[in-house]
Structure formats: C-alpha cells, structure tokens
Design brief:
With about 425 residues, the chain is α/β, with parallel strands linked by helices. The chain has 21 helices and 10 strands.
C-alpha cells in the first residue's frame, strides 16, 4: 500500500478501494507537481508537518456530492419520529440532532427545513453539523446554492426557503442560523469528547462505505455512544447491514435505513404518540374519553398555517408491506426493465435491497434502471455496487460511460483500464 494511502486510512479512515486507488494516485501526482516534490516519502513528511498541505489533500480526495432532500424517506421518517414519538415524551425539551458528515450543508439544512415546515418552533430543535472539509463547511455557512443542489421534480421547498440571486439561491436566515457547523473528524478521539448530552437523532449517511471494516466498527461505536437510548441513527442503504453487524437493530421503517440501539424498548410515550395520532381524526366525544383514559400530556400545537401545509416535497412513507411467500426476483426486475417498465423494475430492486442491502447485483440493476430514467442517483447505485463487489465488470463499464459523459476523461480512462484488466484476468483463468 502506498504510504500516503496508509496515512489517509489511519487519519480519516479512507479506504482507497472505495474511490479507486488510481484517483488517489492522480491526486498525489498533481499535489506533488504543484509543490515541486518528486519523492513520495518527501511529500509524506510534508503532510505530517504541515496542516495546510494536509487540508489541501483532504479537500482533493473527499467526496462532496450531495443535494437537498436526497432520498425523501429518511426525512419523512424523522419528522414522524419527532412528531409522534419524541415530542409527546419531551414536551419542553430541545430536540438535539447530529449530521456527520454534513458536506456543504444540503443535508442538515434539509432536516431544518423539514422541522420548520412540520410546525416545530425553531427554538425547539438544535443541530450540530460537522465535516472534515473546511471548504465544504464554508459553503454551508454561506448558504448560497447552485441549481445542482436542487434535484427531483418537486422543488416547492425552494420557493419557501430560498430567494434567487445572481450568485444562486440564498437560504433564508431563519434556517441558516439554526445550524451549528464546525470542522471535526469522526475518527478523532477528541470528536465531541466534551459532549455531555446525547443526540436524539444522528444522520450519518454514505460515509461508512468509504471506510474499511475495522474503521466502520470504530465509527459505529462512536455514534452509538453519542446516540440517546431512544434515538434514531440514519445510515445509507448499503450501510444498514454494517450497523446491524455492530449491534444496532433495525427501526423497521421502510426505505428509511434507520437503526435503534440494541435493547431499545419503546416506552409508554410511543403508545401515547400512536393514540394521539389516532385521536386526531376521531370524533370529539370519543377523543375526549380516550384522552382521559390515557392521561395524555398537554402538547404544544404547531402553527395553524404550518399544520395546514402539506410536506409535498417529501414522499409519504409506504405502508408496511405484507409478507410475500415469494418476492419478485432480480431476474423479473431485469425482464421488466427490458420491457421498458422502469418503475416496476425499480420497485423490485428497492424491495430486494430493503431485505438485503449488500447485494451488488441489485445495486447495479437499480443503477441501470435509474440511468435509463435519467435519474442522477444512478451513479450512487453504481458506486455502492462497486464497493460491495470491486470486480463487478458491468458496473465498471457503466461508471466509465458516466465519467465520459461528465467530461472526466482521466477517471473514465482509469475505470476502462481497470475493466480491461479484469476481463483479461477472467479470460486467463478459464
């Protein structure tokens, strides 16, 4: 292993295979050339003594691809948790959240917008958002975003919370000032070491896939220590099996990829929340009788205008699916995709991944379907497939095509060479 790759792994947990060793090598060559350094050992010595150069390297290798309300289900699940479970149990407390990594702010601001639109007053929630990239944090604090940060068909949240300007879309101060952004490394022993109060929810999505197994275990142990006993941990689709391996349990919320601490037992607050939800649509007399019987606490009501407004930008959670003796197979999904029935094919892939998020073939096929539908999240699916199965030939080819389309010819060349080497190796083994 290259000494710089080893240093990146030890310091920030980055597994070179997750983004491609060639990408790191190319980045090193460019940095060394700009500094007039020839020997890798000399550059490593510089990294160990210069915080500035270390930050330059980190900025060059971290993945910052994100956008607002990326995957709607986790946000909808979180709002339901806040309304129906957390609020009844904590009528006067502040809801505490952690977002790591927060990149350029799209995810923590999405959480804040969702909370605001749900009717929870701004003084009832607090979010800490951390990242290892100083540049990404600067963009987050600035709160100005280009069109690339707004994807999907429904962008009504942009009309509510942003104003257009010559530099892009400017986030309203109410939301921007509610986030506490700071630079920190999750793997550092000092990470939130002075934190005395746990978080009610932690968003740590699509970070663990860039770590090797020992580092994933360390990160999850750290998150477990920061999470409240009744809190929720949200991870990426390919990461939930990793969390379950480390002792977390599934929260059983479809497509949200949310976990609970092991041993979590829902208290009476959960029962009260469910009852309150049922009572909301009941007639007045039965509602009063049931409320007296349950002795429900008096809860602060959301603002009428907010309560009346639908969270149209978030897809509602699907109802619990009945168990099927024989779930549709990936072969069926492939047949439907070939017939042009992309929505049906995607649904089968997503259901398969809900049961087992570690199937590279399912991620690859979902990527193909989304690619055919013009969905930019196809690239994420391909990357997850390649992370789970680094020698997945078809995925390498698809990522090559995407790199060529985006104009990243160096990346495309690296991927194509990797695919060709794999093909030759397979031919030699036959």
């Amino acid at each position: 292993m290259c000494p710089i790759e080893k240093l990146l792994r030890e310091t920030m947990g980055l597994d070179a295979a997750s983004i491609g060793s060639g990408v790191i090598q190319r980045t090193l060559r460019l940095r060394m050339k700009s500094l007039g350094i020839i020997r890798v050992e000399e550059y490593k010595t510089l990294l160990e003594s210069s915080k500035t150069e270390w930050q330059e390297l980190v900025e060059a290798v971290v993945v910052t691809e994100t956008w607002f309300f990326r995957d709607g289900e986790p946000f909808q699940a979180f709002i339901r948790f806040a309304r129906e479970e957390w609020l009844p149990a904590h009528p006067t407390r502040v809801l505490r959240l952690l977002c790591v990594p927060c990149s350029s702010g799209e995810e923590p601001y999405s959480i804040l917008m969702a909370l605001h639109d749900s009717g929870l007053p701004v003084d009832r929630f607090h979010i800490d958002a951390t990242d290892i990239s100083a540049r990404a944090l600067a963009r987050a604090r600035r709160g100005i975003y280009s069109r690339n940060s707004f994807r999907g068909k429904d962008l009504t949240f942009r009309d509510r919370h942003f104003r257009p300007s010559k530099d892009g879309y400017v986030l309203e101060p109410t939301i921007r000032n509610a986030g506490n952004f700071f630079e920190a490394n999750l793997l550092s022993p000092a990470f939130l070491a002075q934190q005395n109060e746990p978080y009610d929810a932690i968003f740590c999505r699509n970070l663990l896939i860039y770590f090797d197994r020992p580092t994933q275990a360390r990160a999850l142990q750290k998150l477990e220590g920061l999470l409240a006993p009744s809190g929720l941990l949200f991870v990426g689709p390919a990461e939930q099996p990793l969390a379950l391996e480390q002792g977390f349990v599934s929260a059983n919320i479809p497509m949200a990829f949310a976990c609970r601490k092991a041993g979590f037992q829902p208290g009476t607050s959960g029962t009260e929340a469910i009852a309150r939800s049922v009572l909301a649509g009941a007639r007045k007399a039965p509602a009063v009788r049931a409320a007296r019987f349950l002795k429900l606490p008096e809860l602060p009501l959301p603002r009428p205008e907010a309560a009346a407004r639908e969270l149209s930008f978030l897809k509602p959670l699907p109802p619990s699916l009945p168990l099927k003796p024989k779930p549709a197979s990936l072969d069926e999904a492939r047949r439907l995709a070939d017939a042009g029935k992309l929505n049906e094919a995607a649904a089968i892939c997503e259901a398969h991944l809900q049961r087992d998020g570690t199937t590279a073939q399912a991620w690859y096929l979902l990527g193909l379907v989304r690619d055919a539908d013009g969905d930019p999240t196809a690239a994420d699916c391909y990357r997850k497939a390649l992370y789970l199965e680094p020698n997945h030939y078809e995925t390498l080819l698809q990522l090559t095509l995407l790199a060529e389309k985006s104009g990243d010819l160096n990346r495309a060349r690296t991927l194509r060479n990797r695919a060709e080497r794999l093909k030759k190796q397979e031919a030699a083994e036959r």
